[in-house]
Amino acid sequence: MSTPILGIDLGTTNSVVAYTDDAGVTQVITDENGDRIVPSVIHFQSGGDVVVGRHAKQNASVEPDRVAKVFKRGMGTPVFQDGADPFAVDGKTWTPEALSAIVLTKLAGMAEQHFGEPARRAVITVPYYFGEPERAATRSAGGIAGLDVLQIVNEPTAAAIAHGIDQGAADGVLLVFDLGGGTFDVTVMRYTADGSMDVIASAGDRELGGADFDEAIAKRIGDVVERESGLDVKDDPYLLADTYALAEELKKELSTSQTATKRLPVAGKPIMFTLTRAEFEGLIADRVELVEDAVLNALDKAELDGSDVDTVLMVGGSSRIPLFQEMIRRITGRDPQLTKNLDEDVARGAAMLGAKLGGDLDPRSQLAQRPQPKDAASHALGLTLVRGQPQEQYNQVVIPEGTPIPHKGTHMLAAASEGQTELELVLNEGRDEDLDFVRELGKSTGRFSRPVRLGHPLRCELEYTADQLVEVHVYDGETSEHVCELRVQHSGMLSPEEKEDARSFLAKAEVR
Amino acid sequence: MAAAAWIESLDVPPRPTPQDARAFFGVPPDPEAKLDANISRKRRSWRSKTRERRVSENAARKVEAALKLIDILATFVKRGVLEELDLERLRESFVEAPETVVGELDDLWRIVEELVASGRLDEALRVANEARERFAGTPTANAVFGWLAAQASRRGAETTDVLRREGLAAIREAIGAGERNADTYMAQAVLQIDLQDGEGALATLREAQDAISGGLTPWMSSHKCEAHALLGQTPDAISSALVAVTDETTDLALRSNTANALVHLVRHSILPIASRQELALYRDVVDVAAWCASGAPEAEDFVRPYRLWATEAGSRVYAGRLELRTIGAVLTGFLLLPALNRWRSKPQWRIFRDGPGSIPPEIFELVALRDVPLYVHGDAMAKLGWRPDEFVRAGGGG
Hints:
By secondary structure, chain A is an alpha+beta fold.
């Protein structure tokens, strides 16, 4: 028997690794401290070792320049967020992809410790809004960490699997509300009695999560500290770290209590800080509005009302905040489903999916009875075409999001100008017609063997393969002559040399 | 996951009507009751475009402009207030302006009309100019250019006489080459009027009447009114105005154009009123202008001060020294007060015309230095022997 396939929730603020055994029982793997949740924070120690998790988070105040966090927001790009400088330590630059590889190395190490032998196969989750470059970067990060990534799966799908939505006896509409530490996703899915689940709409906020709520409380604490002691918490990294830690504690306590009081030592003198739930809700009111906006927006996109939703799953640590549960009740009229360990649901779902993919499940287990999940295009793919008078370029969707892959299709197009001799083929990701709102994935140019007239027929053949390769061929509609081709397959941000460099770093350094 | 077209659309005419604004929010096809919900929905949808994923700076700017546009139109549909300046700026910020290419000459009229309708007059002129070079000597290319010059002359304050003259030359060439239709004749007449050639415009309209079956269109009559007004031919201007507005009662733009022409006539040819006969003439013209303007809000506002002056100008005001009137009245036991008033009173038009020298300053100030007479005499003040800025800080107009 091989080691189980790992289910990994590679989160913005926290990561979790789980597995499902042959009997269909899912367990979360703990680290050396017994922690089930590993903060996605990396501390590059001066000696060359790398610390990931709780200790790295604690070290953020000691050596902030050597600590990387919330890098998932920049996955698929060289930096953590728009306009930010690249993260560099000791002259070496680290991309979000390479940093994610470090976190995955830590999680793989935990699994190895747990099983007593390496566990190399994994299913990794990503937010639904991740496009092809971000997914490719995540897959690449797994590769650098020595993992064989069997599938990249959407977080809401994993959450739904963890809750057994795929074993329902009837059809229905599911809303997955995933408010994590750094991002917020809301996904509307349709599930059927045969266990299939299709995403029909999604919305969210790539820069909204528990960290923002901590920030709001930390600001309030900072004001109180300044008023009572005259100190600016931002001037003292230790005090700043304590302030954020206190803010997080207060936030968590207010999920179960109406009032929370904590003590913060400032210059040897304790300052008592009390926050009521109502005050907390006031502090985050603007963010709450964004959350509600996203939920309503997902329903708008799905052309559904809140009352059409049959089941609501709330996952992600910040879903514990009662205000959001009330919001869901108000919008849908339903009580949301929450588990005690809602930080672990996504990883558990990924592990269950992994077990099914591995084929080692006991056929008598309940999980083995569930249907095999289908892979589908997470985003629409389109081609840049020309229309109208005056002519304008726009994105024409050729593979709608949710299309099962592998997929093959043929589209008839036409030459855009009189005497046209060349053809530019541009593949975009996104469903908007406006080219400013889609992402160009690749382009190529081809030549006709003779000038063609305006409206000359062209046949466009597309193939989207299971290994995420998109291939487009354009043929002359009259002569079947091949005019142009485009092949797009993302493999992450890093070049082969950079990947090798990151691998050798991880081989030498001790990741703890 | 396809969004309803109205959610994605940012198309709005340069001067939207309340119906345009409602359609911007999907009402119809949705019922009126969904207006508020649709406004929120459109706002949410556009806001999500930058919150959900990383977008280019250009896209972020578009979203910002779209959200402001949504706010402006939401205010318009809910409160009836339209911030036109912001609207125009915002439209420019996200309206794509690809360079227009004309394939065939037959497409030229349609393309320029579409460009003009979408507020892209400069692009239309560029296209028409290019077409004149490409299809040199063809009546269509010349007619289109001349028509656009007339459109530009009526729409933009920055239109120069050079463009008007060039447009006039092009349209003459087109008519000479056989392009004889209402549009070309009207464009020629408009350009002549705007170049202050009233006689030329009347000649064009006479030629049009002979060339086009069915006689002058209501708009041609309105332009005829303009030409007569330009020449100070009051009876002809009035009769052309009556024909124009009687023939076409529902076109508010036509009503507005005709009323403006008559106001131009009174400002340039009748004011300042110098006799009872001129007062009667002024009243007649303003009455017709008010009738023409009826139903067109902007034109009604424009004509309103002239109507007020038509009422006030004939009323008499005591113009003698007030203290002498008081003494006279007291000494005669107020028996001679009516006679004193009658003896020393003057109609307001005369006080205004004669200026401040002949009557006590406080009386002059009460009668002449007011918004209404100063406004209506804006262009005619030069004909008076006194200047309002010697007495007041602000005023005038026109």
